[in-house]
Design goal:
It is a single chain. The chain is an alpha/beta fold. Helices cover 31% and strands 23% of the residues. The protein contains 3 helices and 6 strands. The strands form 2 sheets. Strands 2-4-3-6 form a 4-stranded mixed beta sheet, with no helix packed on it. Strands 1-5 form a two-stranded antiparallel ribbon. The two termini are 17 Å apart. The mean pLDDT is 92.
């Protein structure tokens, strides 16, 4: 589902040190060249209708926010599993 980035709440912030890392630079370059390949995973916020909690994809969302993107296609989790979503 396409979700406005403003309606997605990150569970943790992306520190400045991470934003300066080579991994972050690779994600930025990849998104710039081909777009988001692995959709972020969100869950509906339990107490805020129309809002979502970001479960996976914090760096991708941070890159999209920096670029000024307004929305992103996400996967919606219906339960919490012990496996990674990707």
């Amino acid at each position: 589902i396409r979700i406005p980035i403003a309606k997605i709440e990150m569970l943790h912030s992306v520190p400045a040190k991470v934003r300066r890392s080579s991994k972050y630079a690779r994600i930025t370059a990849s998104i710039r060249e081909v777009g988001v390949i692995e959709p972020p995973v969100v869950a509906r916020h339990p107490s805020k209708p129309g809002r979502y909690l970001l479960l996976d994809g914090h760096l991708r969302i941070a890159v999209l926010e920096e670029r000024g993107d307004l929305d992103v296609v996400c996967l919606i989790a219906t339960d919490d599993e012990a496996f990674t979503y990707n």
